[in-house]
Design goal:
- This protein is mostly helical.
- It is built from 17 helices and no strands.
- The protein is 67% helix and 0% strand.
Length: 348
């Protein structure tokens, strides 16, 4: 599967995965005027056996979020605030969030103090028993699987930090200062060559992969899109400010050690420094970020706004849960000797 993907020199175009995403692509790129997008969104949800893993639903939501990010150049910028598109997005978001609220196990709430919230988040992330994709990469993965790993990660990492940055103008005081401190590092501390998304782009090039954003959009599964859509939904909805903060805290708390394992695995496979630099950068950086995110960001937000504590913990738990689903999909495919990417018949 990967040989075919590499040989085709992927384009930054996008293929539909069902009636909803097909209609959205036509509207967002200006190929047609109006369609009843709300009705199509409702029908897509009704058809889906699991909206989290449904290709049409998740690609549709991804495309609607891409309109706000400006991440896909073919999407017309003047449609960002189109009312019909926003209505369809709300329908998809409501279903996606409802399923997550039902399926994500959230721990008991700690006291709304910085110290207690930080301890609870560290306990939650330390107790996570989800499948370790990084451990597999470190010890067992083939070079082909390592490239698949980079392709799967490219949907978020070539836009690293952007979903969490939506929270900056919605925070104040201590939480805002903490988030800006973390994000400043993510964006290279003023050095364009050290922007984490750019370091990852170099890793893609070093591994012989396409570094353009969306170059592999057609081959990643719905769960990979759902992982990105999760943080986009949290970040773009002001009412979910607690959830995006909790998401970032859990993200940072589970990054340093897996980054070390991933870097070691890539070195084991003979990849050079241009590929491993991204992971090596995160071993030290995220060991610092996890402390800031736990106490100064999430903990101080809970102290300042105790009503957000349930969503802070939900956001953290949702990150761990969805990441676990995504990792399970990849590892189950690899353990069968199969590709974790979409099969050719699924792409059509």
């Amino acid at each position: 599967m990967l040989d075919t993907v590499l040989a085709e020199s992927p384009d930054v175009g996008c293929s539909s995965r069902g009636p909803l995403s097909e209609a959205l692509l036509r509207v967002l790129t200006g190929e047609c005027g109006r369609e009843d997008l709300s009705a199509l969104a409702h029908r897509a949800i009704e058809r889906a056996s699991d909206v989290v893993a449904d290709d049409d639903v998740q690609l549709g939501l991804f495309l609607l979020y891409a309109s706000s990010y400006g991440s896909l150049p073919q999407i017309l910028p003047e449609l960002e605030w189109d009312l019909d598109l926003i209505a369809a997005r709300r329908i998809l978001e409501e279903s996606f969030e409802l399923v997550l609220r039902e399926r994500v196990p959230v721990p008991d709430l700690p006291a709304a103090t910085a110290a207690d919230v930080s301890r609870s988040l560290f306990a939650l992330t330390s107790a996570d028993a989800g499948p370790s994709l990084a451990r597999y990469l470190s010890k067992q993965a083939s070079a082909e699987q390592a490239r698949e790993f980079l392709i799967q990660r490219s949907i978020y990492t070539l836009r690293e930090a952007d979903p969490h940055s939506w929270a900056i103008p919605r925070l104040h005081g201590r939480p805002k200062a903490a988030l800006v401190e973390i994000q400043a590092d993510e964006y290279g501390g003023g050095r364009p060559d050290r922007v984490h998304a750019e370091i990852f782009a170099r890793a893609m090039r070093g591994a012989g992969l396409d570094d353009r954003y969306g170059g592999y959009l057609d081959v990643v599964p719905a769960l990979t899109l759902a992982s990105h859509n999760l943080m986009s939904m949290f970040g773009l909805n002001r009412r979910l400010i607690g959830a995006i903060v909790g998401h970032l805290a859990a993200f940072e708390m589970t990054s340093s050690i897996p980054s070390r394992m991933s870097g070691d695995g890539l070195r084991r496979l003979g990849f050079g420094a241009e590929v491993t630099d991204y992971f090596d950068e995160h071993v030290e950086a995220d060991a610092v970020h996890e402390q800031i995110a736990g106490r100064d960001l999430a903990g101080s937000l809970a102290e300042d706004r105790p009503e957000l504590l349930p969503d802070i913990m939900f956001g953290a738990a949702a990150y761990l849960t969805v990441e676990g689903w995504t990792s399970s999909h990849i590892l189950e495919a690899w353990n069968r000797g199969a590709s974790s990417l979409r099969a050719e018949d699924e792409e059509r």
